[in-house]
From TrEMBL:
Family per record: Belongs to the NqrC family.
Lineage: Bacteria, Pseudomonadati, Bacteroidota, Flavobacteriia, Flavobacteriales
Membrane topology recorded in Swiss-Prot or TrEMBL: Single-pass membrane protein
Annotated NCBIfam families: nqrC, PRK05346.2-4
Protein's name in the database: Na(+)-translocating NADH-quinone reductase subunit C
Amino acid sequence: MSNKTDSNIYTILFAIGMVVVVGALLAFTAASLKPNITENKRIEKQQNILYAMGVNENDETSAVFISATEAPEAFQSFIKKQLVIIDGVAKEDDQAYLIDIKKEKSAAKDPDYSRKLPLFVGEREGKTYYVAPIYGKGLWDAIWGYVALDENMVVQGAYFDHKGETPGLGANIKQRFFMDDFYGEHLLTENGAFKGITVAKGNADPKNLDKTDNEVDAIAGATITGDGVTAMIKSDLKLYKPYFDSLKTQKTN
């Protein structure tokens, strides 16, 4: 007489039972961890924004955020206004840092959709910083960043990151030697037209002394990632030019 546990039906039912149990456990774990994951993402965004405006723990060579425990208080201290710009109109919104840039960029492919543009106005040592998030694509996956500007759209700091670029090559966009090159670079031409910044292979200014050439030196062996940085700067930061034009208009009135 055969054992019931040897039957195909028992095996199938056992497998289904295990899938249900394991699935339930995974769902419960995911639900339990979701608040922590959301909070960690919130703090990471705050660290990124603060880093771009110079609130960090950098040493001579390394890029170092302020700690996760310090970030919320520092964010409240240094960020004076959070704005959301829609169709050229800026409104204050203290939840602007929660806007998903990737989703907004995707939704904007619909010509009838009005993209939400977050902008963070910070003050440090008597200076005003305007920090804008940007998002794009590198060689393998997503790249993103936060760029701090002054009222003339001159870069005052930048932080870049990636999801899956090649270590030692494209992944170096988050290294100090690359990010620091953007400091002082102009996004506008002498005539005030938006030009952006090109990550240029064979740049004639490898020491980055000319801050009005709209170029920084590329990372060797990371051409496509560099092109992705160029593209996201030009496509995303251009959208903020009407806001900065309005700042100049307000000054003259």
